[in-house]
Design a protein that fits this description.
Elements: E1 3-5, H1 15-24, E2 28-30, H2 34-43, E3 53-54, H3 60-69, E4 74-75, E5 83-88, H4 94-105, E6 112-117, H5 120-134, H6 140-150, E7 152-155, H7 159-169, E8 173-177, H8 181-185, E9 193-196, H9 202-207, H10 243-259, H11 263-275
Parallel strand pairs: 1-2, 3-4, 5-6, 5-8, 6-7, 8-9
Helix pairs in contact: 2-3, 4-5, 4-6, 10-11
Length: 278
């Protein structure tokens, strides 16, 4: 059973969402959103049956609600606010990089956009391009606040240092706008998603690139990965012993159980070994 909730501020469900749900094979659609949607899915209501796992991003209230219901249901991650880190050399168009930074900044006033470059002049050119674009951007109030409070341009002595710094930041989105992005990517361990080369803007990953764009934020890429089919798969182990196998490894289980003062554990094995006259 697949159920989704669809926020509808104006009371009308976006038909594109309905089409996507149909293509994806969704069974149930509920016209609710926010923390209340998380509560409904976790605990159930008169009309909504509770689910086993909740996935997908939302605002700060949704993130807090997912944290609260974890344990009652499974969750994918606590995601947000959005973030992008761009590592770029001076061979790039400053306007392209500025737009990539703003593509995250326009999400949320708390979104984070960072450029790391090995060329100070290029960094200044990108900053100027950001200011120019903010003059005409439709969501300039949001993007401008995000850039002012959480944007940054960092100049490093080399791209190798940029890779080291990136791993410390463990960004949600990482763009490698350099001459050899594959070589630089090989130096990086922690990132939600990596976009290789100047022709691969992060926006491609949001919409048509292929991999899921629900990604770990707030440095959680150090220990987690983006949403995937694996989030909807769980494992159950099967163990079967033959009398011969129990005779070989059972004594080790006896000793380990006694070392933890768990007598019944040990005796449960001993009783079977006695049956085998071992």
């Amino acid at each position: 059973r697949l159920a989704i909730t669809v926020p509808t501020p104006d009371g009308v469900v976006n038909p594109l969402v309905l089409l996507a749900a149909k293509i994806a094979g969704v069974d149930e659609i509920y016209r609710i959103g926010g923390a209340q949607a998380i509560a409904a899915l976790a605990y159930g209501t008169e009309t909504i049956a509770p689910v086993d796992k909740i996935t997908g991003p939302g605002n700060a209230f949704v993130a807090a609600a997912k944290r609260r219901v974890f344990g009652k249901v499974g969750i994918d991650m606590i995601a947000g606010p959005s973030e992008v880190l761009v590592i770029a050399d001076a061979e790039n168009d400053p306007d392209w990089i500025a737009l990539d930074l703003l593509s995250q900044a326009e999400h949320d006033e708390s979104a984070q956009s960072i450029l790391i470059t090995d060329n100070a002049d290029f960094g200044r050119a990108v900053m100027a391009a950001v200011e120019t674009r903010l003059e005409t951007l439709a969501r300039r109030d949001i993007a401008g606040a995000s850039w002012r409070d959480y944007g940054a341009v960092i100049v490093v002595p080399s791209l190798a240092v940029a890779a080291q710094l990136s791993d410390r930041l463990a960004p949600e989105h990482l763009e490698l706008c350099v001459a050899d992005p594959e070589a630089l990517a090989a130096q990086i361990t922690h990132a939600g998603a990596i976009f290789l080369g100047a022709w691969t803007p992060e926006a491609i990953g949001d919409y048509v690139g292929g991999p899921n764009h629900v990604l770990p934020t707030a440095r959680s890429a150090r220990f987690s990965s983006g949403l995937s089919v694996l989030d909807f798969i769980k494992r159950t182990t099967l163990t079967k012993m033959t009398p011969e196998a129990l005779g070989l490894i059972g004594p080790a289980a006896e000793r380990l159980a006694l070392s933890e003062s768990l007598e019944a554990h040990s005796l449960s094995v001993t009783a079977r070994l006695n049956k085998l006259n071992l």
